[in-house]
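Late entry, written up from scratch paper. The run itself happened at the end of the previous shift, but nothing got recorded in the book at the time, so transcribing now.
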Amino acid sequence: RLTRFVEFGRKIVCVGKNYGKHAQEMGGKVPDKPLIFLKPATAYVTEGNPIKFPVGCGELHHEVELGVVIGRKGSNISESEAMDYVGGYAITLDMTARDWQSTAKKEGTPWSIAKGFDTSCPVGSFIPKESIGDPNSLQLWCKVNGNLKQNGNTSDMVFKIPHLISFISQYFTLETGDLILTGTPEGVGPVNPGDTIEVGLGDLSKVSFQVQANQ
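Output as recorded:
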């Protein structure tokens, strides 16, 4: 059933600035606790469908991330038990309307539209937990039109997966099929209509998307 998490998962919980060098490139410091925001489940887009450039957006950025698919319901989960709640993983993108996010940061307003618009969460296929030995040692990469733009490793995460699950579950009950986006390494940058974005987890999983003007 988890292979269809996109169809029934109720929320996407995202972690910002979880790689030190990305925090620096965004002009900020690493937070002292996880920075959490949400995307609606309508943000999902799967391979074969386009990423739609949001109407009125001036700068759309790619952010490749490891997605953690929750395997069973839990709240107030301890770090020591957190991995028992992981059902599997997926390679994902956190597409970001950067100009809108920058404005929101300046004005102190929410990032919801900048981060949660339709097709802002492209995902690859479900990877069972058993297929990944150590999720804290995975290469994440992103190419735009064949050019390597991001090449990082989950070993550089500031807050590791057990800590993220434990922290998030203090505030949001995690449900079967929910997805946690664990942050992006440095190298984020713009894409344009007509571009092809390809992302992968080492050679375990890769997925590709076309960027399309939103008519």
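The first strand starts at residue 12 and ends at 16.
(Scratch paper discarded after transcription.)
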